[in-house]
Amino acid sequence: MKRVYLFEEGRADMRDLLGGKGANLAEMTHIGLPVPPGFTITTDVCRDYMRRGRLPDDLMDEVREKLQVVEQRVGKRFGDPENPLLVSVRSGAKFSMPGMMDTILNLGLNDRTAQAMIRLTQNPRFVYDAYRRFIMMFSDVVMDIPKKLFEERFAELKARLGVTQDTEVPADALKTLVEEFKQIVHEHGKEFPQDPSLQLEMAIEAVFRSWNNERAVIYREREKIPHDLGTACNVQAMVFGNMGDDSGTGVAFTRNPATGEKVLYGEFLPNAQGEDVVAGIRTPLPLDALRDMMPEVYRQFLEIADRLERHYRDMMDLEFTIERGTLWMLQCRVGKRTGRAAVKIAVDMVHEGLIGRDEAVLRVQPSHLDQVLHPHLDERALATGEYPLIAQGLSASPGAASGRAVFDAKRAIERGKAEPVILVRPETNPDDVGGMLASKGILTERGGMTSHAAVVARGFGIPCVAGCEAIHVDEENALFTVEVNGETLTVREGDYISIDGSTGNVYLGAVPTQEPEISPEMMTLLHWADQFRRLRVRANADTPKDAAKALAFGAEGIGLARTEHMFFGAERLPIVQEMILAKTAKERREALSRLLPFQREDFLGLFEVMRGLPVTIRLIDPPLHEFLPRYEDLLREVLLLELTAPDSPQLAEKRRLLQRVEELREANPMLGLRGVRLSILYPEIVEMQVTAIMEAAAEAQRRGYDPHVEIMIPLVGHVNELKVVRENLERVAKEVMAHEGVQIDYKFGTMIEIPRAALTAGEIAQEAQFFSFGTNDLTQTVFGFSRDDAEGKFLAYYVEQKILPENPFVTLDRAGVGRLIEMAVRAGRAARRELKIGICGEHGGDPASIEFCHELELDYVSCSPYRVPIARLAAAQAALRHRVAVTVDK
Amino acid sequence: MKRVYLFEEGRADMRDLLGGKGANLAEMTHIGLPVPPGFTITTDVCRDYMRRGRLPDDLMDEVREKLQVVEQRVGKRFGDPENPLLVSVRSGAKFSMPGMMDTILNLGLNDRTAQAMIRLTQNPRFVYDAYRRFIMMFSDVVMDIPKKLFEERFAELKARLGVTQDTEVPADALKTLVEEFKQIVHEHGKEFPQDPSLQLEMAIEAVFRSWNNERAVIYREREKIPHDLGTACNVQAMVFGNMGDDSGTGVAFTRNPATGEKVLYGEFLPNAQGEDVVAGIRTPLPLDALRDMMPEVYRQFLEIADRLERHYRDMMDLEFTIERGTLWMLQCRVGKRTGRAAVKIAVDMVHEGLIGRDEAVLRVQPSHLDQVLHPHLDERALATGEYPLIAQGLSASPGAASGRAVFDAKRAIERGKAEPVILVRPETNPDDVGGMLASKGILTERGGMTSHAAVVARGFGIPCVAGCEAIHVDEENALFTVEVNGETLTVREGDYISIDGSTGNVYLGAVPTQEPEISPEMMTLLHWADQFRRLRVRANADTPKDAAKALAFGAEGIGLARTEHMFFGAERLPIVQEMILAKTAKERREALSRLLPFQREDFLGLFEVMRGLPVTIRLIDPPLHEFLPRYEDLLREVLLLELTAPDSPQLAEKRRLLQRVEELREANPMLGLRGVRLSILYPEIVEMQVTAIMEAAAEAQRRGYDPHVEIMIPLVGHVNELKVVRENLERVAKEVMAHEGVQIDYKFGTMIEIPRAALTAGEIAQEAQFFSFGTNDLTQTVFGFSRDDAEGKFLAYYVEQKILPENPFVTLDRAGVGRLIEMAVRAGRAARRELKIGICGEHGGDPASIEFCHELELDYVSCSPYRVPIARLAAAQAALRHRVAVTVDK
């Protein structure tokens, strides 16, 4: 097996074997660009090294053989006392891991070759500087001697000389320093190796070893790069950008990576090595400076950049060095970019004829759109360091906001009229909804992704950071405290804070926010995506406002309208509570009859906005106690009254309420009296809802809209539940139609969100005209995880420890939940061929989960309005990735 | 299709078509016993009638044809003015539904045939009495005229005559009454039909109609008899037991149905019709009286009884009538019996050579054993009516108990020393355990089958009625109130109450209890059962005492020892709480090290008792907050202290505790931080437990027992959870063995109680040496039911409304939960051929579920000690019912 590839022997598509850097160096060499010669030791060798703990016995023979070719190319010899070749030894894995692994420059220097270099360059300062750098780097990386010792010695030297800049240290002093550095090595019981071959072998081994250093492992964890890939090792002839004013080094993107604008974008540092750019010691100049300083080199570089972009058919990230007027390309790779730039570049490249529409659609990452679609905190403002990060919670509802902290819903309403406020609560409850709506953002100390705060915030599109357990909210004194760098920080009402609901970060101060923008390029891209995808995309929307937003983002219907969210309105909640506290079905019906007009208006609004598109309305789902005051709060009030006003009528009233709340309380509300179970025990609630739906549809039809109603019954586990409720509600629907004298297109269906429903989907499909997988609850029940409890208490740890590969509430668990879904789809379709099947859990907006839905041939996914564009893109990408016969409209 | 069968045309095995009564009348006719001739109209006709709402057009032609045969047999003619035949028309379904449907006697009487009867019998009183009964019965059943009107008229007559007994009313008066009765019919716009053929047709239709009368429907609901079976209709020549002292009627069992003793057992009423026996107007005589009064008839009856028992090979329930010295058999059927009798009869019949051992095993119902195996309330005492039934709750832990009500755990301990007490609580918590152990029984107002009270009670074998929401416990005043027949009854501390944990009934007063008895016959029967069954039977037992009981009942190992139950002991709970409140892992380990000796002793005890048999120990399962005081109680205490002693150190202490409890509290504890999740986050707890297990096993081995340890990790949902925990604990186990210098036979396995575990069982089997299905939790998660909430709030309603066919926590749901189990068994065995598979949920003691386990070829079921005999029997029955090749050891 070949273990060492000369650059001219490799190609860009050999990344697995040669790593990204090696493959691209090979590609550039192959197409004739000026690349300093060199070779790549394969990732196979690294994997072998990891297994056996040492380099293969005859590896160095192969290395020496390739080194001879390099020597011939550059006309120098490695270790030659007259005309020595120096090399760099660099890591380079399949996926870029910038700065995570080790690199050694100037290898091949020793006391004798240094003298030869001085003779050749006539520049002793340059040579001693290179030598001292090499010893330090080599000692640190290869021999495990702390870098700090060398840095301290250099600092002492500068102090002694009374200079501050490295460049001010004269050659003599550097020469002495080199000796001192060697002495440091000696003091560690080691000797700095004078033999260049030994240097090389040790450096190669160190590069391979660095694959498993701590920071590389952590980086791979975070970026989800497999640990068993290994790195390649590139050995390349050194070129020097620090040999005078006709030398220099730079980096460039072939287009603007922030905006996507088609213009070369980069930085250049004259008389410098790459290291200096990274170290940030000198401020680089814009690329234009190169045009002025070395116009011919600049023209050559422009040509190369253009050629590479056309060759790779993508925006490229380039590194180059100029040694005495000669341009050398040291690296090229596909450039990282912002979401905005990704969209623009993809669309522009189609217009330029570089790529096809399918390729453009595949190139933009769904996460790119996510960046663009929400208000976000200004990155540049954050980079100033003016706004300290003070805590991190769960990213419960995306988007960012800044405002004055308030600790009470009423205060939020008051202050929120005049200025932006962020509502900070231990956790929220129905009484807080008014205040939540008046706030720009919500921050809670407790509660998970399905906590009241999170659900309401997502429902209303308000940014929210939930379960931020680092903060301690003191409601009474209207403040929260948080430990920051060992000190207790207190944030009081009126202090500015900023939250990022997409990351869970909380900052002190009013960080400027940037509004989302839907560029014409994005419209174009999504339009192309729509032509490729097979899955339809609907939105989860409860209000006409949300529905309008969803429609603007391209939703093709509403996949989930949560009727109970409508119960929380200020005028409505008291009626809802009255209904719940009613002692008889008659009283309950009376209260419901007063709710009916509200619900009818709600539905009419949805039908108007969605004219002609299907609207799936879920009947009441949560347990009734969610609409009542919290047990703990009531208990507190009652106890207080017992001690202060034992005979007050208020106490009697509160006691009555407490008793009802106690009756309704549940040990595990998630698995309690909710969904279809409520509809069976209290049919009058859903009778009212269906009456409101059908009356609204009748009115919508009269007004010339074309309502298509899908009534969804949640939490069904046994076909009989659906049967009983559906039969009753079909009756109600028919009565309303008869009364209104209209025919409405309506369907009855169910959510599949309980394992038993999935397991008996064949039976359930007998009674359901559509299925919608409620993957949030299905994930909870299949895993036996209460999301509220799991996310704060152990799920993060599970993901961190790789016990679970992903958070299953974010990306659908294929092996467990997915398997059940697959069974249900198969059985459901077998029982009813025309069964419409969708998904309306949060996974409906997650690209990996959307791909799974595509594979299962679902009819649609439904997600929050803001994620509709992401779903459109992800659905198209899934279709493109799984296409068998390629028929692409270029 | 033949629709009417003469008795001589039918057989006993035609119950589907002829109903039980008809088939047995046919059988008796067939074997030559004296049965009044008659015929049966099939259940087919009834089903046809239910579909079409009227009798088949030509049915009456067929009826008349058969009637002619009957006329020939008895030498009388139906409707004949000289020698009329009277008939009875009776329902008779496949399954006995005593008294639920309608019967008409003396049909064929009209003004003319009555005169003929008078001539023939010379007994006008008898005839008018029969006629007035017939009109009343016919009007009520066939013509829907309220019976009450007739009864009132009869009462008026008796008042006028100044008599109290029916028999005292003379013939004349009865004659007048007949006319008055006809007048009543007339007043309802109808006429009593004089045409016997019309009477017959109307009566037949009425019998079929009565299949769907309300009480019959309710009865079928309760007894789980399908509604579509229909009833047959038997038309039979009347014989009269009320024709003088040489006449009479009686019922008999061929053996004592209470004890099983082989002796004819019954009652006889001279000069009476069956109706009189049922009405209870006269007190019947023991059968012996017949021997004295009519020795020849008695001898003939004895012979018939013996013949029928040998013919049916079972204990029979017989009805007979003697008309003027002639014995007629009116009914025979297999007799109902108590559990004790069922066992004795089955075993005796094997010894008598009547049936085989397999048949004996199949004949005893598992519910029969259940009756016998628990202390039960004395039925006779209850029948006196002295002990009113005051409430009904959930049958949370079987067995019965009487004692003085106490409302506080401490009081239970105090009073429990001197006299039996029943602990009554709103619900229980860990602080109550001492008091629970000191009580004979437990009664709670709230909480389901898995509430703390229920779980602890079952664990310790204490009878318990939980979730008895009819009672209102007032802890402060040490009393409970309950509405009984519209009045509020108050039970105070010290009042006697009795509970039946097998039915959920609560009685006022000290009902005597009867202790369970394992008769030699039961030992024999179970020994036979063991020879047929393939499933092994283990017990769920946490203490040596329970283990010993289980062993005595025939358990072949422990399938579930719940280690956390051991945490509740009085000496232990404080240490457990200290462990939970510990701030560091070090403090936690310190507390755990003090728990270790307790746990080691616990395990050693189990190994000693079970010597040589496998012991499955489940590592800690419940969430830690279960071991701390209840949040609500603490909150109450803190609030009180805040108002009354705001500066007390006590308040600070309670606040600290409250804070920790708040941190640990969960929205849905059932789906929260428990089971393997705890073991991952706090590995030190299970490390202690495994250390204790292995040290105990080592000691047991030294003492000459032969421990076989199966360590079970609960709540696994992903193979990685098991892998991580198992690897750590294997290390601990090996360290202990090395330290102790022994080799222990141990296995690591997991509970399959989360849907995802079942769905990915193939992967999980890679890491598990055994599976035990925890069907309680699996049912909860597959249905999305929290048992605590569901049972009280909607499950009962679901079962009542037939939305669910069964309570899935009692009988395993095959379609949903069962399907998952089947998938898991298949995948688990495919991945690991020698995988041992059992079930340890409560279904392990339910016969229908055991049959399912047999079908799935599980290795064992595990159930509570008291249910071990039931499981042995049910497992044998399952094996017998599913045997392909019959190889029976008779």
Detailed description of the structure:
The structure is a homodimer of 890-residue chains. By secondary structure, the first copy, chain A, is α/β, with parallel strands linked by helices. In chain A, α6 packs antiparallel against α7 (171-187), α14 (357-363) packs across α20 (520-532) and α27 (683-702) packs across α28 (719-740). The first copy, chain A, has 35 helices and 33 strands. Chains A and B meet through α24, α26, α28, α29 and α31 of A and α24, α26, α28, α29 and α31 of B.
Give structural attributes.
homodimer, 890 residues, alpha/beta, 8-stranded parallel β-barrel, 18% strand
Shape of chain A: elongated
Chain oligomer state: homodimer
Largest sheet entry of chain A: 8 strands, mixed
Number of strands of chain A: 33
Number of helices of chain A: 35
Mean pLDDT of chain A: 92
CA distance, first residue to last residue of chain A: 41 Å
Specify the structural class of chain A: alpha/beta
**Poorly predicted ranges of chain A (pLDDT <50, ≥5 residues)?**
885-890
Assign a percent range to the helix content of chain A: 40-55%
Name the beta content range of chain A.
15-25%
**For the largest beta sheet of chain A, what order do the strands appear in spatially?**
14-24-23-16-17-18-19-15
Largest interface: A-B, 56 and 56 residues
